[in-house]
Amino acid sequence: MQVTGFYYLRNQSHSTEVTLWLTQDSSYEQVRIYNGDELLVQFDEYRQGQQLSGLPVELVFIDGSRFVPHSSAHRWPSESTWDRLVERIEKHKTAVLGCVVASAVLAWLLFFKIIPASAAVVARSLPDSVVHAASAQTLKALEYVYLEPSKLDDAQQTHIRTLWQNHIAQMDQAPEHLVLHFYSAPEIGANAFALPDGQVVLTDELALILKDNDTALLAVLLHEIGHVHHQHGLTLAAQSAGSSVTLALMFGDLEGFAEIIMGTGSALIQQQFSRDMERQADTFALEQLSQLGYHRSAFAKAMQALAQAHGMDEQQQDSLWDYLSSHPAISERIERANNTTD
Q: Cα-flanking dihedrals φ and ψ of residue 255, to 5°?
């Protein structure tokens, strides 16, 4: 095979116009490059460059030099079937469009179906030591950034803790190792959240706005216990790590693997449960309220108090507050609690 083109020495932009002769048989390949009648160089080994539609496919030699054909249409006989298939696809707009759509569907399945399902399995199989370590790391970081020592007096804390312990003892589905913490959180405001190992944080601000309604406060705490019961925190952390690893593999950034694994606690800090997870935790709280002998409207009263504390109208969609922004709309949650039969 005789091909004309340009020959570039290693790490040089200057080229020489040459003729390349490629000799092949079943057990032998040789490339000879001529400048006119003068043999410049010959090679027994080479590799083909990346094949892109509309561009010539270069040959790269063992010494780093390369040959670029004049014709962008030229293709080397040793091209793989896969390369030829890719090139044919690139030349057909319909095929390209089909590949784009297929890639989008595959990405959706991967990130919204396969990884979440796998994350749930991983969350259930993690040893307790890992769960406690991740939770401890998260709480320590939160204490450093957002949380301050509680300013509730001893009587208030004792009252809430008694409410907590008495009702946990009556629950049929109470997770193990449930612990209640009190913190002041001026930047977060009225809030409560659960860590994967069963630690539940109640802010002073939330305790104060619900100080006259123990049942509404209990409803919020039951919602957080629902997250622990369904292992939402661990599932979300595993899902975040799985997505990060997948993206690293897709784009070739493998150096961040250790950071991904070690950063699980940080992921928990920034987590926002999916709306399905929030509805699942709501269902847990509503069912437990009924089993404990309370009306489910207590949950609606808690949501109304939270919306009012954060300056949100009940009909307003989630936008102003991170705790609510990752949850279903306040109006939807209130309506569900009020309309659910006991």
A: -70, -20
Spell out the residues 6+ positions from residue 74 whose beta carbon is closer than 8 angstroms to its own.
3, 56, 57
Q: What is the pTM of this model?
A: 0.65
In angstroms, the CA 46 to CA 169 distance is: 74
CA distance 146 to 72: 60
Report the alpha-carbon distance of residue 141 to residue 158 in Å, rounded. Answer: 26
CA 94 to each of CA 12, 53, 101, 117: distance values in angstroms, whole numbers, following the listed order? 40, 15, 11, 33
Q: Can you say how many angstroms the Cα of residue 240 is from the centroid of all Cα atoms in its chain?
A: 3
Q: What are phi and psi of 322, to 5 degrees?
A: -60, -40
pLDDT tens figures, 136-191: 999 999 999 999 999 999 999 999 999 999 999 999 878 888 999 999 999 999 99
pLDDT single digits (tens) 296-316: 999 999 999 988 887 776 555
| Single-letter code of the amino acid located at 26 | S
